[in-house]
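Forum: Protein Structure Q&A
Topic: Joint prediction for protein chains with partners

I've read a bunch of threads here and the consensus seems to be that you should model interacting components together rather than docking separate models afterwards. I'd like to see that in practice. Below is the full input, 371 residues plus whatever partners are listed. Could one of the regulars post the assembled result?
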Amino acid sequence: MTALALSSLSREELRRWLEGLGHPAYRADQIRRHLLRAGEVGFGSMSDLPLQLRTELEESAAWSTLAVLAATSADRGLTEKLLLRTGAGHELEAVMIAHPARDGSRGRRTVCVSSQAGCAIGCVFCATGRLGLRANLTAAEIVDQVLEAARRWDAQGLGRPTNVVLMGMGEPLQNYHQVVLAIRLLHEWGISGRQVVLSTSGLVPEIMQLAKEGLGVRLAISLHATEDQLRDRLVPINRRFPIASLLEAARKYAAASGRRVTLEYVLIRGVNDTPAAARSLGEMAATVRGHVNLIPMNPIPGSDLRAPSAAACREFASLVGPRATIRHSRGDRATAACGQLRASLAPEPRREARILARELALVDSPTGPPE
Ligand code: SF4
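Posted by a regular:
Agreed with the consensus. Here's the joint model:
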């Protein structure tokens, strides 16, 4: 019998399940508090629950859908990368990033979660893309990444997660239903739509569908190029949904959700870092009334692609205009930065060769917009 994943249930569903077993509904809140607490390792340690209930939970429910295989920390413990494994044996990664309280501002704790093990999209600058898709994660497996982070921060005396970003392994909108369900479940763990950022490579129909869900999540578009010829090579989904259709979807999402859209742009030396691309990016951000996050390329194994110099990144940002900020990756020292997540898995050889061929073509003849 498959164990019931507690993280797959809403509070009300857990209440009803407990009542079905003959226990009072308030036990649901007790159990849910335990799931967030430091030092909890399973049902056995829930000493305020009756022994009979603990035994029933051990027999029929899963404490977590994920096993922690390893944790790597950097930035004096403020950044932590978790290597996790699902019950089906798929590996994935989540990254915890704590921003301490400073100058009167309250601290933030962001969990970057994976929505898939591996990814089918194959962006040229991304380690995960070289793996290919191994599995879609369930909503419970997505929520359990956040609960694991909550327990770890609790152990450090920090508060609960304040933000969740769907920017780990995978394209969230290719696992649409489980991702939407996970976001709804996270609302009940105190994470509102405003505190969730969903990053997509640009699946236009799913962006339009998401706009109708009323979740209020913030959308980040992985743009990375300002003309289709180059974006076709960097982010292959562009061949199905070119830039104009993607920006139109972004505009509609912003209008429907009332949330500002972010355009993500990985800066790659000699590929997409021309002054003309910067100006064009600034214009695109203006048309969607969005913001631009510039991310200097993080090195990945087996790739020669590199970031421009720090001065060149600043110059690019100034040409984009006031809507741009450079995102200095906190995760890179833990190999946990954008595009670097790939668990301990070996890339799929034929897939990696295909991506490498696209990378070589880019370096040999960058196709950024003419000066
Ligand atoms: S950047 Fe995102 S969408 Fe692209 S290959 Fe990596 S994980 Fe997939």
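Residues 366-371 have pLDDT under 50 and may be disordered.
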